[in-house]
Write a structure and sequence with these properties.
Blueprint lengths: L8 E5 L4 H12 L3 E6 L16 E4 L5 H15 L4 E4 L14 H29 L2 E6 L12 H21 L4 E8 L14 H8 L10 H12 L10 E4 L10 H4 L5
Parallel strand pairs: 1-2, 1-4, 2-3, 4-5, 5-6, 6-7
Helix pairs in contact: 1-6, 2-3, 3-4
Bound molecules: NADPH dihydro-nicotinamide-adenine-dinucleotide phosphate.
């Protein structure tokens, strides 16, 4: 299977750091013209800029005007827009009893409203072209609840249902809409890599493949989903979590208890 995005334009929100940055670099390596959207460039946490050739466009995904301007800028620069990856997201933690309502709201503003606004902005362009791919970052947290993750989990579950509805609405225009569920990738969002070893080990024990996920594990899936090879997949939530959903207590297999 040959994946080559020559001539195609891919827009990635939250492209300045973390998984989004890896997606930007990967789609560019697969010959796409890439526009990275983020709150600021260079990313305040990542430090250095993106490679030459990437269009960096400042955009707050929670602000309808900022989103409209960013998509207008993409079309002005490239003349088309084939793939939208709604990657920008924030993690909000806190038990329901203690969580500040403002933080609940920010989780839904970035993780849900942001996906809605960017999708809404690209729909007319994709409809006019008669094709398109919208790919939304969900999470295993959309399916598996965690203590202190009501806001994050509920917002990601909303992304999954949004994805299904939009897939139905855009099917007649040959536009596919899918969501993906990564597992645990150490990034600034979660600080997994900085946790004490015992805590890291406990988390890894929940994975059948028992290693931290790499941004490229997500990039592999997204290149497939954005390609012609995935033309008949829509409205799906694709698990790319290393086996978070596979079985309870997967560590038993590593302890030799499975035989
Ligand atoms: P990071 O926190 O490393 O990166 C998130 C990016 O989104 C940052 O560049 C951030 O910008 C940007 N962003 C935040 N708010 C906005 C906004 N309002 N407008 C535009 N951009 C914004 O996160 P990850 O790379 O870890 O996560 C990427 C996506 O993957 C998220 O949707 C997350 O929920 C999902 N995910 C991640 C998992 C993981 O293990 N890491 C697991 C499951 C899902 P800035 O730097 O300026 O804040």
């Amino acid at each position: 299977m040959l994946i080559d995005f020559t001539g195609q334009v891919v827009v990635i929100s939250g492209g300045g750091r973390g998984i989004g940055r890896a997606l930007v670099e990967r789609f560019a390596a697969e010959n796409a013209q890439v526009a990275a959207l983020d709150l600021a460039f260079p990313d305040p946490l990542h430090g250095d800029g993106l490679p030459d050739g990437i269009a960096t466009i400042t955009c707050d995904v929670t602000d309808a005007e900022s989103v409209r301007a960013a998509i207008k800028d993409v079309v002005k620069r490239f003349g088309r827009l084939d793939v939208l990856v709604n990657n920008a997201g924030i993690n909000v933690e806190g038990t329901v009893e203690t969580l500040d309502p403002a933080r609940w709201k920010s989780a839904f503003d970035v993780n849900v409203l942001g996906v809605f606004l960017l999708s809404q902005a690209v729909i007319p362009i994709m409809k006019a072209a008669g094709h398109g791919r919208i790919i939304n970052a969900a999470s295993f947290a959309a399916i598996i609840p965690s203590i202190g993750a009501a806001a994050y989990g509920a917002s990601k579950a909303a992304v999954v249902q949004f994805t299904r509805v939009l897939a139905g609405e855009l099917g007649p225009w040959n536009i596919t809409v899918n969501a993906y569920a990564p597992g645990m990738i150490p990034t600034a969002m979660n600080g997994f890599a900085e946790m004490p070893e015992a805590a890291q080990s406990r988390l890894l024990d929940t994975l059948s493949l028992r290693r931290w996920e790499k941004p490229d594990d997500v990039a592999d899936l997204l290149c497939f989903l954005a390609s012609d090879a995935a033309g008949y997949i829509t409205g799906a939530l694709i698990d790319v979590s290393g086996g978070k959903f596979a079985t309870q207590i997967p560590s038993r297999a590593y302890e030799g208890l499975a035989g």
